[in-house]
Amino acid sequence: MEALFNFLVSYTSLLLEKLFPTLILIIVSSPILSTLLIISFHQKSHLRWILTSIGLLQILLSICTLLATYSGTTFHISLPCLQLNEKYTLSLGVYVDFLTALMLLMISLVSWLIALYSINYLESEPSKKRYFTLLNLFISTISWVVVADNLWGIFIGWELVGILSCLLISFWYQEISAVKASMHAWFTSKLGSICFLIGILLVISELGDCSLLTITQATPSTKIDIAIGIHVAGICFLTTAFTKSAQFPFFNWLPEAMIAPTPISALLHAATILSLGIYLTVRIQPILPHELQNILIIIGYITAFMGACAALAQQHIKRMLAYSTISQLGYVTAAIGMQAWETGILYLLIHAFAKACLFLCTGIVVRFIEQSGTNKQNVYDMSHMGGIAPYLPWVASSYLLGGLALIGLPGLTGFIAKETMLEKTLMWSIEYAQSGYYIAYLIPLLGFTSTLLTILYLGNSFLKIFCGIPTWKTNTDASRKSLSNHWYGLMQGSILAFAGCNLIFSMPIANQFLLTGLKRIDQSHVVIYLPIITPIGIHYSVICLSIACLLFAIPLLLLIFKKSERIKLFLNSSKLVRLFMNGWYLDALTKLTTKQVLIGSKLFVRIENQLINGFINYVGVSYVVMAHMIAWLDNKLLAGVGYGIAIVFKSFSKLYLHLQKSSLQKHLLWTYVVMVLLFIVWVMWNGFF
Residue 578: which pLDDT band, with cuts at 50, 70 and 90? Predict the structure, then answer.
């Protein structure tokens, strides 16, 4: 078996080396080909065959790429596109390692199953072609972001993904709430894009290049020399990642985006938008200073705790799953900050399949509730569900498997990954507490509390939806017949496939395969700030605490389910619960801040109009008055004096000319007269008279 596996790895590596980058471009562009074929053919059977065949091709090539890069081989090609100056040339290319291949497999597998699910979920939708066109373009741009070899290429795909995601969120644009949710996501995405662009320019100015290969080979000494630029670039990149992965304080756009069709919600949460922020963080992690990695840990666990609290208080099933995604990705963000990004990526993969399974199960449940005659406004409310398991047994089983994968039963990959992250968190807090920062102990406390809350809200949702007494109308025969007419089996097949993926990737052999491939990626440049070997006592303590959270949550969960009416009254009257239900009022805080900014802007406008502009007008009038005064002085006084002087000189000139033209006798006469006058003056001056 091992010999066969080694042969497959060697063969696929040779194949990819010979056909690179053709195979990668086929993976990226195959969804676009699917779009062209869908537009060309109109029959529903053609749609199924096109999506099935091209999706399987993309998955097969992704698996080949994963095997080819398992041994640590990296494939890279870059083509210059634009000469900006003598030192820098803008280029685009493809960079493929095991992380890239794993992300491609996750994207292609999840998107393929969701596309098949969507065929029947939107069977009666008149805008089905627009839906699949946007969906395939979205998948293609996501794949490009993953394979791009530099930050410029990632940025191009990032912007296209932002546009397409907003169009998918507002797919039912006739509803005002869909348009508002799309605009909220758009503005949040634009904030991240601006920060991303600033970060790219700073990295180019400091490192001379923004390729992933240059970032990977950045050394610690390089970080010291360019600390200021890298700090600012790191802050920009983290802001970009937080806006895309819905981390604190940018996570409230995600619950609003649940207005989109359920398959789109599954795609956004499972393998596309939210995973991009994690992927970007992993790629730029080698150049992040130590302080920013600590920020990743803190923000990650704050997000995990806030998302878990909000999820526990939700009655809307899709909003509950949205806050659950926010919480679970907080663990992954913290894992990257603790240099355990391999474990974080493994948990991201488990989360992708589990959350897609939960969302698609939700879609079937909501369709079942709709067709049973329940009011459309209450179909997403878990308090109007219950007792659905006998009617949808396979859906209930798939939902349970997805929930268990996220809760993390001992022995499953979810438990191992989460226990590893909590273990490293505890080690990190002990290290900082020894330096006097005792507040660091709050971080692992948030982690364990979030783990307990995860068990509670997922278990509570399962009990409310599938167990207990039905609270919906009991027109079950019509519901079953309607679901059967809408190819309920194909939709159910998609969720069973996701449940199977959860089981496969939870096996120890799959866990070992993925971790080995991720650890073979060259990470020699990374500075390890945490102890490599964890004390055995801490290791078993974390395991015991994780199991204790599970054991404590089970009776608490049963108590909540049995006392649901009393707890519902308490929830309706509690201000703290309302805080959680409204997403910690971050939207209200944002609106308040925006309102204050607008008030301040109006105040500044008034000050400018009345004070600054008045002063400028006063100065201008003063200058005009002074100009008129100077002009009058110049015209009347100075010009008059000059004119008078000119007249005097003119008179003397005429006298002089007259004297020059006279005869000698007249000159002598005038000389005699002048001498007499001077003699008279002298006599009078000396007082002889």
Answer: low
Q: Is the pLDDT of residue 97 over 50?
A: yes
- Give DSSP secondary structure letters for 430-499: HHHHTTT-GGGGHHHHHHHHHHHHHHHHHHHHHHHHHSS---S---HHHHHHHHHHTTHHHHHHHHHHHH
Is residue 387 within 8 Å of 466, Cβ to Cβ?
A: yes
Helix (H), strand (E) at residue 93: strand 89-96
Instruction: Indicate the burial class of 688 (C-beta count within 10 angstroms; 0-12, 13-18, 19 or more).
Output: exposed
pLDDT above 70 (res 656): no
Record the pTM. 0.82
303 HSE (CA, 13 A, CB side)? 30
Distance CA(257)–CA(271), nearest Å, equals 16
Buried b (16+ CB within 10 A) or exposed e, 238-274: bbbbbbbbbbbebbbbbbbbbbbbbbbbbbbbbbbbb
Residue 517 has phi, psi (to 5 degrees) of -65, -40
Residue whose C-alpha is closest to residue 155's, from 141, 175, 139, 165: 141
Burial class, 556, CB count within 10 angstroms (exposed 0-12 / middle 13-18 / buried 19+): middle
* Of residues 462, 450, 482, the one with CA closest to residue 404: 462
Pick the range with the lowest mean pLDDT from 92-106, 226-240, 408-422, 632-646. Answer: 632-646
pLDDT in tens, 478-534: 445 445 444 466 788 888 888 888 888 877 788 888 888 888 875 433 333 344 445
**Are the C-beta atoms of 388 and 470 separated by less than 8 Å?**
yes
Using only C-alpha atoms, the chain has a radius of gyration, in whole angstroms, of 39
Q: For 114, how many CA atoms within 13 A lie in the half-sphere containing its CB?
A: 33
Question: Could you tell me the residue ranges of all domains in the chain?
Answer: 357-581, 591-685
Q: What is the pLDDT of residue 566?
A: 60
CB atoms within 10 A of CB 277: 25
Neighbours of 122 (CB within 10 A): 17
d(CA 70, CA 556): 44
Q: Give the pLDDT confidence of 106-164 residue by residue, as tens digits.
A: 999 999 999 889 888 888 778 888 888 888 899 999 999 999 988 999 999 999 998 99
Amino acid 18 reads K
Reported as a pLDDT band with limits 50, 70 and 90, residue 221 is very low
Residue 503, helix vs strand vs coil: helix
* Residue pair 413/346 in contact by the 8 Å Cβ criterion: yes
Q: Taking the CB of residue 183, how many other CB atoms lie within 10 A of it? A: 15
Of 27, 29, 16, nearest to 77 by C-alpha is 16
DSSP state of 85: S
480: CB partners within 8 A, 6+ apart: 391
Query: Confidence class of residue 299 from pLDDT cuts 50, 70 and 90?
Result: very high
